[in-house]
User: What shape does this take?
Amino acid sequence: MKNAISLLIKLLLTCSSYCCFGQDIDLELETAVNAIAVNEGDTFYYTISVFNTSVYDASGIEVTCSIPATVSFDNSIATNGSFSAIESLWTINSIAGGDTAALVVTLEASIPGTVSLSAEIVAADQEDSDSSPGNYGSEPLEDDEASIDVQIIDLQGPLCDISLSLRAGVSEAEIGEPLVTKLVVHNSGPDGTPGVKVHFPYPEQFDLIESIQEAGVYNPATASWNLGDLASMQEKALTLVLYGTEAGSFSFQAQVSQSDYPDADSSPNNDDGDQSEDDEDEVTVHISSNEAENPVKILPNGSTDLQQLLPSSVTVFPNPCSDHLVLEFDSDQLVNYQLIDHLGKMSMEGSFASSKLSLDLSFLPEGTYLLRLQGSKIQHCHRVLILH
Ligand SMILES: [Ca+2]
Ligand SMILES: [Ca+2]
Ligand SMILES: [Ca+2]
Ligand SMILES: [Ca+2]
Assistant: This one.
């Protein structure tokens, strides 16, 4: 009986050390290349790193490192284990807790185009706490797998260099105040390229007033600006006028999502969030709350549904307005009015005592203005879009 109890205690202790307290490892994998655009025939370095971020030793590790047919294997060197180019498999006996193993593969860029190099840990003796080996391609992406694209440039073919910059007119604005964001794409050549598209979403806390594009079409539903051809040394701009609906700091990000010809130093649609290439950019704006009462909501198509959104005691039309803006009240009253541009500058002010007023706005530049009305029976702010 004593022996049986002793055996049971031993079993429980063994079980607790392996099962209850766990000795799960956490392996993480990263890939990198020394150049994301390589001339046809040149060699480049492809590095795969495996980090053992746990305190426990990991053993029996296998990593698949795909080598597509458009590149050819030259040689490899590893800090741990050995790499078989035929099997595309890196075998590592062990990585101590907290240690890293690295493999550098020298590849030759054989066939022009985009080559995608992927790698994943496919085996380990221990369980990984947050990833599964050998499930690459299933969502979400895990920390034991990665992929990186390299452009192989055809020396006989066309080559462009598109860059993108994104700016905001102001870094701070109030809720409801127009905010101008301007995106410029430039092609430094040497060749022009057709089929240029830019992905430019805006945060959901913003409503779009209008988009002004020098070429092509911006589709707010897909956040895609399809601008078409971009000749060598040409640039084209897209301006979005929006307004924030909530207070806070917001990041706007844009990237080139497509171009038909290869780019010398960047790849379309590969922004991983850090805007590390010249065809990607980011700008941050801060939106603060304001005191305005019942601001008029300008709808995404740029029109203003005044009947729905303005109080019944006043009607403002037409909006957008090209020359004369009419204000109609349901009763006579003394009203002071102010028209303020998007920079906060007073463009017009005055007062009147009647139920109707026509304001001549024909001399004012196009844009969105804030109309403030303060009277004995009314106090409101309205947004007015002037288009000539
Ligand atoms: Ca992991
Ligand atoms: Ca995995
Ligand atoms: Ca570029
Ligand atoms: Ca890019």
